[in-house]
Design goal:
Elements: H1 3-19, H2 21-33, E1 50-54, E2 57-60, E3 65-68, H3 83-95, H4 104-115, E4 122-126, H5 129-144, E5 148-152, E6 172-173, E7 176-177, E8 194-197, H6 203-210, E9 215-220, E10 223-224, E11 230-231, H7 234-247, E12 250-254, E13 277-280, E14 291-295, H8 297-300, H9 325-340, H10 343-366, E15 371-373, E16 378-383, H11 392-395, H12 400-412, E17 415-416, E18 424-425, H13 432-451
Parallel strand pairs: 3-17, 5-8, 5-9, 9-12, 12-13
Antiparallel strand pairs: 1-2, 2-3, 4-14, 6-7, 10-11, 13-14, 15-16, 16-18
Helix pairs in contact: 1-12, 3-9, 4-9, 6-7, 10-13, 12-13
This protein binds pyridoxal-5'-phosphate.
The site of pyridoxal-5'-phosphate has 15 residues, from α5.
Length: 455
């Protein structure tokens, strides 16, 4: 970190802790007791502790309000505490918060989700996005009798071991990435079953062909989220579809972010490409923990419990809380609202576009080289760099220190986003005024960083 940027970061952090004493003492307590292991706190510029949330806003334990640009890492498309979801949860809790046997609520949610995925017939619920990509890989392995998994550089798919390579790190040439484990504790053998493909690059097709006879599936995000919010090009997805067919591997769309976020269902609704399996999470649970793997009956059916034994033929997916009634009630309430009012997606896109336009204008007015990525209600950046980024690899050339400083300073302006701001979300609860305030806050902070010589 550069000298002045480092000083400034320390000063802003110290000031945030001074002005947020309740968060500071909660954090100090957590650090001292070391009771919290793996959480998402590392994504935040300063982990302020939240007390409550409403609409587009979060309120911290010191009484400060933030315009939330993260929305629970994406699921909260209708904002915090949307009345329909709150009512559905209240009604469900009166009938019991968890059962064990199935309920009709999970079937109702499943029907809404399956109807939103072209060509799909069936789904299996899990409890997270990561579990759903794990399930998809297992189903693909069972269907093909092969073990190798193809994934793209920069693709984030949750915590399943073969998918924890080249998520944040790069190695090798652009068209032939080398494997990098982005997690300690992976068994050595896992790497033997993974092929990392370049994203949005036709060189991926030759790599798929090279590994064709061992390849069970290729997992790809139609929009790479955590990598920097980069859509996969239609021609790249079409090429993957063709080459997977050629080698007999399944194509899996990881739609944990895009599912019901950009359209009332799968991103495949708006693309001329049909994957074999789709994974979803986030939005389909209405703010409750959830995941699902969705596809044609022949691919998903093996998850079904066999009537009289035969477990060796079953693909084990799910667990104690899969398809639980609280998630099903909340998810149904949220998705029903989205499916019944598809115009909401136009509104979401309009405020997303307003955000991207406003941020780009602020960069250009201040003469700061930088780029903003994203589509619909999702955006990434600003990334401070001279050439337009198209991948996570490109973003390594951006001024990441300034990116982190920006997110940290934005807290003082009542704007909450991750640091650096690779993946941000809006909801139907955000107004144009909220968006304009976020843009104005960026303008003020970027101006200050410029005057401090950090940009
Ligand atoms: C595209 C994608 N897939 C999978 C996951 C993992 O989902 P979860 O955190 O629910 O396990 C994420 C998480 O952000 C994601 O962005």
């Amino acid at each position: 970190m550069g000298g002045r940027a480092h000083e400034l970061m320390e000063a802003v952090r110290a000031e945030l802790w001074r002005t947020h004493p309740n968060s500071a003492s909660a954090h100090a307590h957590a650090i001292k007791r070391r009771v919290i292991g793996s959480t998402r706190s590392r994504f935040w510029p300063v982990p302020l502790y939240v007390e409550r949330a409403e609409g587009a806003y979060l309120y911290d334990v010191d009484g400060f309000r933030y315009i939330d640009c993260n929305m629970g890492h994406g699921p909260l498309i209708l904002g915090h505490r949307p009345p329909a979801v709150v009512a559905a949860l209240a009604e469900q809790i009166r009938g019991g918060n968890h059962y064990g046997p199935p309920s009709s609520k999970e079937c109702a949610l499943a029907e809404l989700i399956v109807a939103g995925v072209p060509g799909a017939e069936m789904l299996a619920f899990t409890n997270s996005g990561g579990e759903s990509t794990m399930a998809a890989v297992r189903l693909a392995r069972a269907a093909t009798g092969r073990e190798t998994v193809g994934k793209c550089e920069g693709g984030l798919h949750g915590n399943y071991e073969p998918l924890l390579f080249n998520v944040f790190s790069i190695a090798g040439e652009t068209d032939r990435p080398e494997l990098v484990a982005d997690c300690a504790g992976l068994p050595d053998g896992v790497a033997n079953d993974v092929v990392v493909l370049p994203f949005n690059d036709d060189a991926a097709f030759d790599l798929v062909r090279e590994h064709g006879s061992e390849l069970a599936c290729v997992v790809v995000e139609p929009l790479q989220g955590s990598a920097g919010t980069f859509p996969a090009s239609t021609s790249f997805l079409q090429g993957l579809r063709a080459v997977c067919d050629e080698v007999g591997a399944l194509l899996v769309f990881d739609e944990v972010i895009t599912g019901f976020r950009l359209a009332p269902g799968s991103a495949a609704l708006t693309l001329d490409v049909r994957p074999d399996l789709v994974t979803m999470g986030k939005a389909i649970g209405g703010g409750m923990p959830v995941g699902a793997v969705i596809g044609r009956r022949e691919h998903v059916m093996p998850t079904d419990s066999p009537p009289g034994g035969g477990f060796h033929e079953q693909v084990f997916v799910g667990g104690t809380f899969s398809g639980n009634p609280m998630t099903s009630a909340a998810g149904y309430a949220q998705l029903a609202q989205l499916v019944e009012n598809p115009a909401l997606y136009q509104e979401l896109s309009a405020i997303g576009e307003r955000m991207r336009r406003g941020l780009r204008e602020a960069l250009s007015e201040l003469g700061i080289p930088g780029f903003v990525t994203g589509v619909g209600s999702i955006w990434g950046g600003p990334y401070f760099m001279d050439r337009e980024p198209a991948s996570m690899r490109d973003l390594l050339d951006s001024n990441q220190v300034a990116g982190k400083l920006l997110s940290t300073c934005l807290l003082e302006h009542g704007v909450l986003m991750t640091a650096p701001a690779h993946l941000n979300f809006l909801s139907t609860a955000h107004t144009e005024e909220d968006v304009d305030q976020v843009v104005e806050a960026h303008r003020d902070v970027m101006k200050m960083l410029q005057s401090e010589g950090c940009l």
